[in-house]
Amino acid sequence: MIEIKDIKKSYGKGEAAAAVLKGISLKIEDGEFTVIVGASGSGKSTFLNVISGLECPDGGSVFYNEKEITALSDNELTAFRKETVGFVFQQYYLLPNMTVDKNVKMGADLAGNQEYRGVIEAVGLGEKLHKYPSELSGGEQQRAAVARALAKKPEVLFLDEPTGALDEETGRQVLDYISKLQKEYGFTVVMVTHNQNIAEMADVVVKMNSGRLSEVCANAAPKTAYEIGW
Q1: Is the pLDDT at 165 greater than 90, yes or no?
Q2: Cα distance between residue 198 and residue 227, in whole Å
Q3: pLDDT of residue 13
Q4: pLDDT tens digit string along 82-132?
Q5: Lowest CB count within 10 Å: 96, 135, 153, 156, which one?
Q6: In angstroms, what CA-CA distances link 114 with 103, 149, 178, 212?
């Protein structure tokens, strides 16, 4: 379980300081698919960065199964991210001089995973092992980024606007792969998106407004990537 207690985060100093997160508390259960939605500037990405350990909050605490990551040193936090979480962003961040195989192997090496090619097969890139990012479509690059994150065998996969740069058909395909892989491997998913329709795939939907949670609701009947609107 991820337990978030009264998280606050501001940028800037003195009178110019802007409060981005204004005391957020939330619990995310193991194996849950949580989607965070809200308008631009509502604090979604900052919240994701804080609860994943990419950024430190100004106040409050984040616990993973009673382990307080907000109390860790920089080295301990780096080790935590390496061992526990995976990241997928709107930008693919693939290394252009490495093939799909080598990009994904980078993630696998962090966990000592020598069987990473099964993940490449699972995201539909088995025939693209030796292709470079420039030889892939946008959707294929995003699937390679998902495979790289999952090759670490993370307990939690964080995604920040993973379909933001994709067309509808490709976006649905990527979401479908993520959903199926989550069911197969049992990891927790926390996704930030501006697309309200994607929330219909979630077990839990978290709505943010001006740095606060405006609503948290369970979804009794999550839809597939091909059942939602776009």
Answers
A1: no
A2: 10
A3: 84
A4: 999 999 998 999 999 999 999 999 999 988 888 899 999 989 999 999 999
A5: 96
A6: 14, 14, 21, 42
Q: How far is CA 80 from CA 20, 52, 65, in A?
A: 25, 10, 13
DSSP string of the chain, one letter each residue: -EEEEEEEEEESSGGG-EEEEEEEEEEE-TT-EEEEEE-TTSSHHHHHHHHTTSS--SEEEEEETTEEGGG--HHHHHHHHHHHEEEEESS----TTS-HHHHHHHHHHHHT-S-THHHHHHTT-GGGTT--GGGS-HHHHHHHHHHHHHTT--SEEEEESTTTTS-HHHHHHHHHHHHHHHHHH--EEEEE-S-GGGGGG-SEEEEEETTEEEEEEE-SSPPPTTTS--
Q: Which residue has the tokens 């994150």?
A: 149
Tracing tokens 């292709």 back to the chain, one arrives at 131
How confident is residue 61, by pLDDT bands cut at 50, 70 and 90?
Answer: very high
Distance between CA atoms of residues 164 and 190, nearest Å: 16
pLDDT band, very low/low/confident/very high, at 17 (cuts 50, 70, 90): confident
What does pTM read for this prediction?
0.93
Please name the residue that has the structure tokens 């990473």: 116
